[in-house]
Amino acid sequence: MARKRWRYHASLAGLTFAALVATLNWDSEQHWLDRLSIVSAYSCLVCLSVALLIGPRQAIRFGKPIVNHYLRRDLGIWGAVWGFGHFYLAMLLSMNNEYLERFVYADDLPFAEATQYLLYSAGTIAGFLVGVVFIVLLGLSNDWSLRRLGRRKWKRMQRLAYVAFGLIMVHGFAFQLIESRQLALVGGMAVAGAMVVFAQFAGRIAVKKAGGPAPHR
Ligand code: HEM
């Protein structure tokens, strides 16, 4: 298992490195820090979405929920690493007057000033809350926590990943509206959200049909 986990980490580190190189060499008018902020945000979203699809997939295959799954855990860890990278960059880029004047108080924005401000505040608060939840989840992502808390409690706390995912949706859509993002990116986030919700339902139904316990109980 240790070798398998090293393979997971090596693959995820390789993908991270490739994404960083591609972002930095991407020929674009955008500043490289802006690019890195967006790429890190989406990389986090992808890692977390895939991690949250693993449980339902196993439930559908085997008819019972799983507690610990190493690939899911490792994806969560790398998602949090990307998330914190974005957290730092986004704070640098958006928590200042220049950003507010461009995306909150300007005259040519899609919504009224009060709405832009509301979106900015809600998006920022949700972003900070994701950071807090990620710290708790990172603390859980090891065998020591699993042993110490016991499978039941550990699993219950691990469900915070869904809270993080929900907050990322609120946060991401708020900033997408503020910055009038391209439809493809808005659609991408919506598809990720829908897949995770749909998979949850499908997993629960599969476990019920197999006569097992409800997932994560
Ligand atoms: C770990 C916590 C966070 C996660 C997982 C996260 C995730 C995301 C995601 C998925 C988007 C994509 C929406 C898009 O622009 O198309 C986004 C955008 C954005 N986020 Fe976050 N976010 C986090 C924390 C923060 C914080 C604390 C701030 C600062 C207030 C912030 C500011 C922004 C900004 C300004 C955008 C717009 C595009 C950009 O510059 O990257 N985020 N975030």
Order of helices and strands: HHHHHHHHH
Shape: globular
Low-confidence stretches: none
**What count of domains describes the coordinates?**
1
Number of helices: 9
Quick description:
By secondary structure, this protein is mostly helical. The mean pLDDT is 92.
Explain this structure to me?
This protein is an all-alpha fold and 217 residues long. It has one domain (37-209). It has helices spanning 2-25, 32-62, 70-94, 97-103, 113-140, 143-149, 151-158, 160-178, 183-209. The longest helix has 31 residues, at 32-62. It is globular, with a radius of gyration of 19 Å. It starts with a helix and ends in an 8-residue tail after the last helix. The mean pLDDT is 92.
Task: Please give a handful of descriptors for the protein shown.
217 residues, mainly alpha, 9 helices, globular, binds protoporphyrin IX containing FE
Give the arrangement of secondary structure elements.
Layout: H1 2-25, H2 32-62, H3 70-94, H4 97-103, H5 113-140, H6 143-149, H7 151-158, H8 160-178, H9 183-209
Protoporphyrin IX containing FE binds next to helix 2, helix 3, helix 5 and helix 8.
